Amino acid sequence: MIEQFAKEELENVAQKIEKEGISKDIRKRLAELGLLAATLPQSENGSGIDRRSFSLVLMTIAKYSASVAYFTYLQNTLVNEILSKAQKRKEEIIKIASGESTGTLVHDLNLNFPQEVYIKGYELYGSNSFVILPDADLHLVLARSESPSYLIMANPVKIEKKKPLGFRAISFGVASYKQTIEEDRIILKDADSLLKSHFFDTSDQIAAIALGMSESAVEKAIEYSKERKAFESYLYEFQPISAVLTDMKGRIEEMKKALMLSEVVQDRILLKLNALELSRLASRVALQIHGGYGYLEDLGVERYYRDSMFLTMLSSNYIKDIKTVSKEIISPDAFKI
Amino acid sequence: MSDLSFELPQEVEETRKRARDFALREFTNELIEHFDETEEYPNEIRKKVFDAGFITIENPWNMLVTMEEFCRVDPGIGLSTLASVFGSEILLLYGTDEQKEKYLYPTLKGEKISAVAVTEPGAGSDVAGISSRIEKTEKGWMLNGHKMFITNGTVADHYYLLARSAPPPSKEKRHHGLTLAIVERRWNGVNPVKLKGKLGMRATDTAEITFENVAVPNENIVGEEGKGFYIIMTFFNISRVYVAAQSVGTAQGILDLLLEYLAEKPASFREMEYVQFALAEISALIEAARNITYKAATKVFSFNPDPALTSMAKYYAAEIANQVANTAFKIVGIEASGSKLEKLYRDAKITEIWEGTSEIEKLVISRMILKKIQEVK
Ligand SMILES: Cc1cc2nc3c(=O)[nH]c(=O)nc-3n(C[C@H](O)[C@H](O)[C@H](O)COP(=O)(O)OP(=O)(O)OC[C@H]3O[C@@H](n4cnc5c(N)ncnc54)[C@H](O)[C@@H]3O)c2cc1C
Questions:
Q1: I need a labelling partner for B121 at 20 to 30 A (CA). Which of A72, A92, A207, B318 fits?
Q2: Who among A165, A291, A335 is closest to B342 (CB)?
Q3: In terms of domains, do B243 and B220 share one?
Q4: What is the pLDDT of residue A1?
Q5: CA angle B77, B80, B82 (to 5 degrees)
Q6: Domains, chain A
Q7: Alpha helices in chain A (DSSP H)
């Protein structure tokens, strides 16, 4: 069903989506398919899909539109799952699950240095420069204070959009806050640690998106290698081209299997790092095989090159990720110096 | 460069410094963003580059280090301005006095812009596979064909264009029967269309051009009829060194940005060994790429080219530019978003494609090396 949706409703308009953004109609379709609160139990207006199946959903959508896949991940995993974890805000979940409104998570978990959003008493102020979907209706904002950090439902006073490297169907930019918060808008205390563990724990979903993108890039390159000739031979006839494509295919298949097996958080983080690296490599190979045509947006190949790097930047901080895993699997003193 | 001194003459080092100062002053962030966004051709900056005397082929080292320093600040504007004389070496080596007078000298004075038109929709790497035809007529020649991805295509005054003038004598000799001609953009039947939407290098002008019954006078044929392939390959042997310099400059620009980033952050971040190792690796790779580029340039500029070495420089430096961009991103992460680092990452990719893809460079290298085995035998 998801494959059919993605193929019929996303494939041909993927380039248009990149230019015009994710329309309300697409949001509605994602909602009808139950994907915007996919992993939430039915009692919480979710679809009750298990996490592995959801990973497969993301991978399938990413093959046709990486932006739509990331949007789905953002709404389901970073917004609705967190709202659900906070055990509050049923009405917000319903709105996002129905595609009626959109949400975003404003955090600095993947940054080398914290962003300056603070809460003092009930005053929320400051800004975050790296917000995906800053024009979302609902912002879940990680705000720091002297002791615990809080997750707050807020609305920015100002947003400034920047052209992102990838996922151009989704806005990106700076969000600034200055407002007095009502008590019931604070939905989590000590939010930092909960968000961090949620962010790491769902790393496999990022791996799924990266694998979908890789698969699509490599398939496009294989197709092209069967159409394009150089030196009176099809490109796939050249040994280095066939070898690199076969190697890519093999690595994607291996990682898909690993995706289904990753049980513990360390495995998921490592899988994410490897899948992201593979997606960058696959996109570079695909672009290269398309030669000059790959460098222009018309064939939709350069998009993989931008998207794979942007996904990496959005979802991973190599130093933090490796540090977390090495402390777990080597020693708490690992990665110190 | 004198023997193994690894020092460039003082005059060249002075040019390097002037080029760096010029680029830092003239390629402002606003302009870099403007040309990246609009994909316009930076004609005003091109004129300033001429006025400042950076375009000269008297001492090619000056052009080489200028390419490096310009691309270090912005590869889009940098290359665009310097490549306004693209293909000049063709006339310098093979042009008649009249051709030089009419096309080369005005180009070198900044009065005209030139372009090289080889690639076609159906043939890029396979130069001998082009299908544009140039045929003899009573009065001169007639050109019909289609060229693709031509840098300066809509802004150039003239193109150095390769077309087939006779069928190949055999399958093995497909590169015979190609002729090089100078074709003016404003002639009847020439129709350039700007190609937009490139991943990077968006300040460069790129075009698809059709030629329909274009009359080319006899005096515009360059070199011997049917020998165009050799002329183009000789030219690539020169131009590839400049692309290697473009890559070195781009990689150095990425390192500069990484250092700027690290300088702004608390010392504890730079003190991490992980960061320090990445920095060391990047620096070593750039140094190696620069050295191989200069070595290849030494041969080319002393009229003793080594095509394998030139291809090694082009291939290696391009690989390094892209690798360095990836490593820098790993450290800076999402903070690189919307920054110049992101732009250099997009710009760097072209170096693996134009003037011979990395795969074609590898073929050139291995063919030359295998030739040596044959010689030993
Ligand atoms: C921005 C831009 C500017 C350009 N400017 C100019 C210009 O000014 N003038 C001009 O003439 N051209 C220009 N080009 C064209 C450029 O030189 C070609 O794109 C390049 O030579 C590759 O040709 P192609 O795109 O046809 O790819 P193809 O030749 O179709 O190659 C496709 C892929 O197959 C690989 N391949 C081909 N043959 C083999 C083999 N035997 N073994 C292994 N792999 C192989 C290639 O490496 C590549 O990865 C420009 C291109 C771009 C993108």
A1: B318
A2: A165
A3: no
A4: 86
A5: 105
A6: 2-101 (1.10.540.10), 104-190 (2.40.110.10), 202-329 (1.20.140.10)
A7: 2-5, 14-20, 24-32, 51-64, 66-73, 81-85, 90-97, 191-201, 203-227, 239-261, 265-289, 291-295, 302-315, 318-329
Q: Are residues B154 and B272 in the same domain?
A: no
Percent of chain B topping pLDDT 70 = 99
Domain extent at residue B309: 230-376
Assess whether B257 and B244 both reside in one domain. Answer: yes
> Whats the size of chain A, residue-wise?
337
The candidate with the shortest Cα–Cα distance to A108, out of A123, A92, A129, A88, is A129
Q: Does A107 touch chain B (CB under 8 A)?
A: no
Mean pLDDT of all residues in chain A? 95
Q: Contact A138/A94 with Cβ under 8 angstroms?
A: no
Q: Which of B26, B68, B355, B361 is catalytic?
A: B355
Q: What is the CATH number of the domain that holds B118?
A: 2.40.110.10
B304 domain residue, yes or no: yes
- Would the pLDDT of B2 be above 60? no
Enumerate the residues of chain B whose CB falls inside 8 A of the CB of residue A110.
333-334
Q: How far off is chain A from B151, nearest CA to CA, in Å?
A: 12
Which residues of chain B from 73 to 102 reach within 8 Å of chain A, CB to CB? none
Active site residue B355: yes
pLDDT at B1 over 90: no
pLDDT tens for B27-85 read 999 999 999 999 999 999 999 999 999 998 788 999 999 999 999 999 999 999 999 99
Answer with the one of B187, B204, B226 that is the final residue of a domain. B226
User: Which residues from A are below 8 Å from B122, CB to CB?
Assistant: 229
B272: which chain A residues are within 8 Å (Cβ-Cβ)? 319, 337
Nearest Cβ partner for A230 among B125, B333, B346: B125
pLDDT digits (tens, 9 = 90+) for B128-156: 999 999 999 999 999 999 999 999 999 99
Q: How many domains would you assign to chain B? A: 3
For chain B, say whether A263 makes contact (Cβ under 8 Å): no
* Whether B166 contacts B135, CB under 8 Å: no
Q: Domain holding B24: CATH number?
A: 1.10.540.10
What confidence score (pLDDT) does residue A89 get? 74
Q: Are residues B119 and B202 in the same domain?
A: yes
Residue B323 domain-assigned (yes or no):
yes
Give the model's pLDDT for residue A88.
Answer: 65
Whether residue B2 is contained in a domain is answered as no
Q: Tell me the count of A-B CB pairs closer than 8 A.
A: 107
Q: What pLDDT score was predicted for residue B35?
A: 98
User: For A82-126, how does the pLDDT look when each residue is reduced to its tens digit (9 = 90+)?
Assistant: 999 887 677 889 899 999 999 999 999 999 998 899 999 999 999
Percent of chain B with pLDDT over 90: 94
Q: Do A297 and B199 touch (CB under 8 A)?
A: yes
Looking at the structure, do residues B234 and B222 belong to the same domain, yes or no? no
Q: Tell me, yes or no, if A160 comes closer than 8 A to chain B by beta carbon.
A: no
Which 316-345 residues of chain B touch chain A by CB within 8 A?
322, 326, 329-338, 342, 345
- Smallest Cβ–Cβ distance between B333 and the set A162, A164, A313 belongs to A313
Instruction: Tell me the C-alpha distance between A72 and A55, whole Å.
Output: 11
Closest CA of chain B from A163, distance in Å: 7
State whether B337 and B263 are in the same domain: yes
In a domain, B187, yes or no: yes
Question: What pLDDT does B3 receive?
Answer: 62
Q: Whose CA is nearest to atom 19 of ligand 1?
A: A292
Beta bridge partners of B184: B158
Q: What is the dihedral of CA B357, B360, B366, B372, to 10 degrees?
A: -110
pLDDT in tens, A297-310: 999 999 999 999 99
pLDDT band at residue B107 under the 50/70/90 scheme: very high
Q: List, for residues A61-76, the tens digit of each pLDDT value.
A: 999 999 999 999 999 9
Which has the closest alpha carbon to B17: B57, B59, B62? B62
> Is residue B272 located within the same domain as residue B342?
yes
What is the predicted pLDDT for the residue at B372?
82
Query: And the tokens for A287?
Result: 């672009």
B187, B211, B226 — which closes off a domain?
B226
The residue-averaged pLDDT of A145-171 equals: 93
Mean pLDDT of B368-373: 89
Which residues of A fall within a CB distance of 8 Å from B334? Answer: 110-111, 130, 313-314, 317
Q: Which amino acid, one-letter code, is at A126?
A: G
